[in-house]
Specification:
This protein is mostly beta strands. Helix content is about 0%, strand content about 35%. The protein has strands at about 1-5, 10, 15, 20, 25, 30, 35-40, 45, 50, 55, 60, 85, 90, 95, 100, 105-110, 115, 120-125, 130-135. Strands 1-4-7-10-13-16-18-19 form an 8-stranded mixed beta sheet, with no helix packed on it. It has a 5-stranded parallel beta sheet with strand order 3-6-9-12-15, with no helix packed on it. Strands 2-5-8 form a 3-stranded parallel beta sheet, with no helix packed on it. A hairpin with a 4-residue loop joins strand 18 and strand 19 (about 130-135).
Length: about 140
């Protein structure tokens, strides 16, 4: 495991050969799988699970508060939601990932906003993110 300072890595579980770049915050109750890379300036909030062989680009933001009551949860964790990222996923720089499930073998384009579960492998981009095409190979 490699963690480049300065980074804030709290009570979380990091798999084998994980890389965490500088200026990253990973909050507690996060699980990150083997060989996953988290690039600089990314934020991974509580209740996120990331699989093996995932690439998280620069400045990716994970969100667990959906403002379900019309405003922020203000620390009321019963209002927070979880996110699950499968294996072999690549998330482009500055993407925003709301509380969703993303299946294996997905590419999320830079700047995309993922608002709904992704259940089919492929390349997704836009706001909101939508499938652009299948992955070749």
């Amino acid at each position: 495991m490699t963690i480049i300072a300065p980074s804030n890595v709290y009570d979380c579980v990091l798999g084998d050969d994980v890389f965490v770049g500088p200026f990253v915050e990973i909050q507690k109750n996060v699980r990150i799988g083997n060989r996953t890379r988290v690039q600089s300036h990314s934020f991974i909030c509580e209740f996120v699970t990331i699989g093996d062989d995932v690439f998280v680009g620069h400045g990716v933001m994970f969100v667990n508060d959906t403002f379900a009551t019309g405003g922020p949860a203000r620390g009321n964790k019963s209002l927070w939601r979880s996110t699950t990222i499968g294996n072999d996923v690549s998330i482009g720089s500055n993407a925003t990932i709301l509380p969703v499930t993303i299946c294996d073998k997905v590419v999320i384009g830079a700047g995309a906003v993922v608002t709904k579960d992704i259940t089919t492998p492929g390349i997704y981009a836009g706001n909101p993110a939508r499938k652009m095409r299948d992955i070749d190979g």
